[in-house]
Target: Dual specificity protein phosphatase
Amino acid sequence: MNYSDYSTDGYHNFMLKFSQITYLFYLSYQIFVSDEDKFDRQLYLKIRNFLQEGANESIKNDGDEIFPNIYVGNEFLARDPAEVKSNGITHVLNLAMEDVETGKKFYKEIGAKYFEIFAEDDPKFDIKKCFYEACEIIDKALKDGGKILVHCVAGYRRSPTVAIAYMMIKKKYNLWDAIVEARSKRKIFPNDGFIEQLCMLEKELHG
Model:
């Protein structure tokens, strides 16, 4: 091979590798931009820092009325029908059915209606897919003049996330106001993935 052939081959190899690297950078940029466009990262950090401030506090009650007629609670409240009744709760939404196995028969004696939606306490879990189904259950309970308990295992991540989503979707709250109101009534701390998904919902609803 003469010098000119070597130069041409080298140039082609260089350009091929350059184009591949450029394309990888392009894809990375697109992924980065897409993720950033899904939600307001400043709002996400503001919420996370706000909730972190009380991270060392203990949860005082098994359940709390964080919004009018909407209780968020843990498995201990959910497993105590007498306590559920004493709070005037008429509907129960279980988000931890794999861990808290109650069911319709469990609340039959107190006349509370039971619902369940599968949701994992995992930052990677797509909890947004639960929002609208949960909203319809909560909304129907309130329109019927009832009170609803939305519970998971600890009443700390899943259940407040869903209750906040309800206030945003049905009551037109913005996310920050819903977070502040909920936190004023109960210690909550949705995991990072849930906060991101609430921020995505905020962007969808309010731009």
Remarks:
- Residues 1-8, 26-33 have pLDDT under 50 and may be disordered.
- The first helix runs from residue 3 to 38.
